[in-house]
Design a protein that fits this description.
Rossmann fold, 530 residues, 34% helix, 5-stranded mixed β-sheet, BirA Bifunctional Protein, domain 2, 11-stranded mixed β-sheet, homodimer, 3 domains, alpha+beta
Amino acid sequence: MVALRLPALTSIFTSSSAAAVRSPPAIFPLKNRLRLPIRRPFTANSTAEKVVAPEVGDGKGKVVDKEKDRVITPRSQDFNAWYLDVIANAELADYGPVRGTMVIRPYGYAIWEAIQFIPYSFIEKEASHVEGFSPELALVTVGGGKELEEKLVVRPTSETIVNHMFTQWIHSYRDLPLMINQWANVTRWEMRTKPFIRTLEFLWQEGHTAHATAEEAEKEAMQMIDVYTKFAYEQAAIPVIAGRKSRVETFAGASTTYTIEAMMGDRKALQAGTSHNLGQNFSRAFGTQFTDENGQRQHVWQTSWAISTRFVGGIIMTHGDDSGLLLPPSLAPVQVVIVPIWKKESEKTGVLTALSSVKETLQAAGIKVKIDDSDQRTPGWKFNYYEMKGVPLRIEIGPRDVSSGTVVISRRDVPGKQGKVFGISMEPSVLVAYIKDKLDEVQSSLLERATTFRDSNIVDVYSYNELKEAIAQGKWARGPWSAGDEEELKVKEETGATIRCFPFEQPEGPKKCLMTGNSAEEVAIFAKSY
Amino acid sequence: MVALRLPALTSIFTSSSAAAVRSPPAIFPLKNRLRLPIRRPFTANSTAEKVVAPEVGDGKGKVVDKEKDRVITPRSQDFNAWYLDVIANAELADYGPVRGTMVIRPYGYAIWEAIQFIPYSFIEKEASHVEGFSPELALVTVGGGKELEEKLVVRPTSETIVNHMFTQWIHSYRDLPLMINQWANVTRWEMRTKPFIRTLEFLWQEGHTAHATAEEAEKEAMQMIDVYTKFAYEQAAIPVIAGRKSRVETFAGASTTYTIEAMMGDRKALQAGTSHNLGQNFSRAFGTQFTDENGQRQHVWQTSWAISTRFVGGIIMTHGDDSGLLLPPSLAPVQVVIVPIWKKESEKTGVLTALSSVKETLQAAGIKVKIDDSDQRTPGWKFNYYEMKGVPLRIEIGPRDVSSGTVVISRRDVPGKQGKVFGISMEPSVLVAYIKDKLDEVQSSLLERATTFRDSNIVDVYSYNELKEAIAQGKWARGPWSAGDEEELKVKEETGATIRCFPFEQPEGPKKCLMTGNSAEEVAIFAKSY
């Protein structure tokens, strides 16, 4: 083991930050914000304590609607600043010491873990439909560093390495289809970085398959974009639009690229996952061949597909609001937080006993629950804190609740009194059913809200002028398109928007290209994107 | 997404390997072996089919003791060749396209996954003993690549990044102790590489802690080496020797390094895990300070500790034999393989029905079981294949077994008839109890065997001559030592052996340094190592 000593970095780090931490300015200059020590709202010295109004402690938590903590920039005021504030304050990630890198913190990593496991089960399920298909977890490792004789590249994606191995592993049609899948880190030299959305190094899942026929590869590429679509809708509550990329936007090396495009809260598009039909492009380059049933050597047909930690950014920017993060229950590391409320020492024992009994009940039912019974924070502080962390449901238990054998439940997605229900019985079967029901409600309500938002921000356009106007308004434009690459690049240059996809769901009837007036077979969606 | 195009690498890959694959030489020249396509023993074209003797199919599997497949170099003949053969043939890993890298295959990765999850539960458990301690999963990401202004290093270990973050996260004694843990990949520029043991890039678990006092840090460092020791004994069945490194062998940047040292089948030592008390070395370099209870600023006291995919190599080289891999049941991805035996089509249905009923019974009991009912391979081929893969137990079910409602069970660690038991009832409660019992037996028998081997290869020495003799015989030498760094380096130069550790378990009574004759407080263990 060798110690890493980097005097240059060390000197950056040693600038003492104590003073800055003790009295953080209300809003840091944006440029420096994440270079400076992350603001720690809700510490003893921060303004957050002010949130705790005197009414707190009556078991009704009225405070939440009152004076708001302003450490998070309002979303409507500056979407980018809001995004960075949420990431810092919900403790999802910090900037790393190297430009363009981030350090994913445990809470952010827990979301990524939830994302990991759910699509994996899909992959497994889908894979089992294919005879002889093994959904394998392989980890490809490639050394970084450099040798003088030969330049090495730190893995930006693994098609080349995979093909090298496929060439060794595939001999005959009996070895096909072959699938490998890895959860790995990759590195891209990005100039404009943004946490979770675009960083020098990020985590992703990448799958690679090889098939005996073009048809099978096409089916696989489509199947995987379906898996991602289903995951986005059902788990992340993000109503993505699935479709095919234009030739200009197709992955270099792919015959066809399928994509899911999500609309963020600022109406910019986020490419949230892709699936590529690689045809024989890589197999021809690498000589990845198999002997078919007639004894002939043929090149394999391939696909690759990936989703990355960028999806975490997509969740933040789809559901988050001025109170911070808002997590879909399916992916929330904590689905329910329980906060005790008591004033007199004599009330404490009863409340805490009820608290742990409720916790056990919910845990036994498979609900991810957390108690915050620390004495150092007021209930009002805790309400705000877990709202900012995006926990979908909050249970409050005070002395009156203990007497009546009930609890108070608040929904994160419905602020204030409207989202608050009193007097729900602590009786296990009642409570569990109620909580599960509410989690489902939050989940569907998030999807519904995002779908409404998306649909109200997609404009059907029939001319280039209409397209320009829609884009200028910050919306997505959907219109018939059969023009060429040059026209597409012209749109990009003049409006900043690109073709996000030709959606799979197409309107019926004859169409005329919005640019050329020629007949068009499909509509395309244009939007500015991350 | 950007395609990685590396013409230099591509040209290496495209050399067609089809011919070589079709008729592999019995043994490849060692140097080229893993550069060439991995030999695929047990394919239709290989010599492995010869193993299947005519007796196969009678439900008693006598073949296994007969003509042996010689694709694996005997361990006694060439330990290194044997090691590489096992890795290739048990499909644990292949060499990657870049010198010194490997591609971990699903079976090898499954072992690493088993290693991951078990120590994690230990870590969690230990951590919960410490008030306020959070066993967090943080993933530190650092961009590779290079900027012209500033040289970047691809992460070889994360102390520097961790300290950068700790400096932001730690303010007062209330923030301590702090623990982060990550499962990540790291890169080292190694000249002499060997799969799992030393590769340019490898996977590991690294933990980092910060404490308010020197005592707490020391306690933590010791606690973690205990966790690793317990894991090695109880899960990997490797009787490691735990102790303290000499000053010469201490991790650069640490005050003290604790280690677990394992004896491989060739009697070389493998450093299988380390835990460092870092003192205030890093916190002083990075200015990682906290305000103590008296309002004074102090530097934190730190530890770090790691185990890596090297542990997989340790398992192979501790338990493997001439038949291939031998996995301890606790870490085996497949604990029991079930092989059906039938000759006539009329027998098939009965056998396969019994097979899946036995599988369900075992699975329901939490046993990791796999059926191999493929028609393409004979039972004899399968016996050899799963022995090579190190599966601890095999169940055979033939028509006679179906009639009698029993199965045949073979232990991987006891070859031939001795390890084979007939007539075990298929009745679920009987079978499950029997299998669990046998798995426990295999587990303890592996540990016992390795312990006996270890102890018979450690020699107590009282002079430098005795030490030299022991090392020359390929053994470990244990003797009193109080000499200086220079003498230690002299031993290394003259014998090739280093001090592996001052073991925690020390003989009682007065001692005299084997080198200087001065009084010594401790014995040290000397050995050649990986």
